[in-house]
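Journal club prep — side note

Before the paper discussion, L.F. wants everyone to see what a predicted structure for a comparable chain looks like in token form. Sequence:
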Amino acid sequence: MKAPWDLLKLRAQYYEHSIKAMLTSIGVPLEKLKFVHGTGYQLSEKFTLDVYRFCSVITEHDAKKAGAEVVKQVEHPLLSGLLYPCLQALDEEYLGVDAQFGGVDQRKIFTMSEKYLPQLGYAKRIHLMNPMVPGLAGGKMSSSVEDSKIDLLDPPDAVKRKLKKAFCEPGNIADNGVLAFLKHVLFSLLKPDETFVVSRDEKNGGNLIFKNYEEVEVAFAEQKLHPADLKAAVETQINKLLAPIQEVFKSKEMRTLVTQAYPPPGKQKPGGGGNKNANNANVPDELVPSRLDIRVGKIVEVSRHPDADSLYVEKIDLGEESPRTIVSGLVNYVPIEQMQDRWVVVLCNLKPAKMRGVESCGMVLCASVDTEGAKNVEPLDPPENCTPGERVIVEGYETGNPDDVLNPKKKVWEKLQVDLKTSAECEAQWQGNILRTKTGGKITCKSMKNSPIR
């Protein structure tokens, strides 16, 4: 849904080179390593018939449960999310493997595979799992939150910046991505005679030398090891670990592959025709939320519409040369004193429209619901410390470019809007994917749960 086949082929090449470089860097031989593309067997008649057979024995409950930790859970799930665990289970048979390895988030799919593959006449497989390393920002690591992870090709200055921002509260060993990475990656790669050294000035007690991870955790929990010193030592080890991998990608061929597989915003997709949304793999009519130009704004001036009692006329700072005029029907829901200097979330690429003689160039997004004949409306709230004009994105759809103007004849906004709603935690979402700013803060409302966003 997010990338065309030609882009997927390039990304598969990138993954192959990356995996080989990683394994080579830690001394793993590659003689028996084999890469298989799913399309090599998943498009066959036999595989397709096995999918139908699988669908005839598994219940909707078990399919949904199996994907609970790897498929977005929404009120009205797509059928593809229910099929996904079944396809992964069949992969074991068609790849001819004895075992499958994954994170603990795969355990429900593994359990389903062990139950249902024998019903199709296929053998159970061994399943191996490792723990999930928390993200640098605390909590789950996410590919959509740039600063929650370190990429293989991140240069030293990027590693330093991300670690500097990482959650690493003194004495707190829970949800500490820095400690988790040290435990599960760096210490596991140390040779028996190697130690983990934390370099410190003599005035701060001199260097610390640790033989195992447990010693580091105890020292940090007792606050004998400062977060800044820990981060500096981890930074050194990460850069040392990444250096041989990045060396592989210095060649002109590899640099070209990376650029083609992950084209920067605005670049033409491989084999494409210059579609402005190419790096999110949008075809012109693809309905993806990255086509919406949603930004954080601050109302710098507000007044009642001279010819409409229910409308406000707002001047909103959106990081442009001058404030933008937007008309909102909020008079009956938000007092004017609460509108002045308010931070809001604005849809900016609607076609300008006259509203009782005043041209409105956008829409203030609100949670809205009708309850027993009474309508309730709350403007969405951006996170603190935002700046006017900061882009609001939907997790999983970060890399696309918004349309210059949404085509009203094709009703792009109307079709995307039906899946915009607040969650039970009052967080703005699109099909269960969170709306947030580029810096990671979530878009919320004060009290309206499970409500449409208009």
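L.F.'s comment for the group: Residues 227-248 form the longest helix (22 residues). Keep this in mind when we get to the figures.
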